[in-house]
Amino acid sequence: MTDFQTVTYSINNQVAMIGMNRPEALNSFNTQLRLDLLAAIDCANKDEKVRVVVITGEGRSFSAGHDLASGYGNHDTIEETILKEYKPWMQAIEGSDKLYMAAINGAAAGIGASLAMMCDLSVMADDGYMFFAFAAIGLVVDGGASYYLVKRLGYAKAVELVMEAEKIPADDCFSLGLVNKVVPASELRVRAQQWAEKLAEGAPLAQKYNKQLLKAATESDLNSMFAMEAEKQNIAAATEDFKIATEAFFKKVKPKFSGR
Q: Would the CA dihedral through 96, 41, 119, 159 be positive or negative?
């Protein structure tokens, strides 16, 4: 396993926990954190023992976004930095067959909020918040924030949040559908781990195909999705996991999925 400078990485009960670890900078992204996060995500995606991945922040913040003090890192423009150092790990999450969960402690600001929205699921501490601060400092949303905000909230609400650039507390994040759950801050890591472990007991191939279907549904029509569902169901019905689940159903026991 890679030795990371700015990321913690552990595996427990088929769950990989990735912690962004620049607490002194509120886990804002510099070049090293971007590279370490990509490497950690790559480790989790390739590890057959890992079924669910949780991303969180060490210390009192999930991520304060781009580290303004670090400038553009190894590049001449912010455009290059976004495309060459942010986009790779975002694509690695977006394209992963595994479920990703954000455990949001404190601030998820700027591109840190983009990361939280990019995960398939999210749980937020009750003192946490999202902050699309871009307009407040004369910048535009990035890291896919425009895409995810409009998809989740619709155009008008997305415009409101981006233009007002105000902190969105945990309860409002939940009401808006930006996070799945809000839990006491002191229980965040434990509750995220418990939820992830429960999900990890599911059928990995079915989760993979369901993730593909649900993502495709945001871009497709009913007829296209009907056909895609039928195709994926045909594949799923031929798996060992389906056979295991069927036998467990008749025996009235809990299935143990093999991922085959």
A: negative
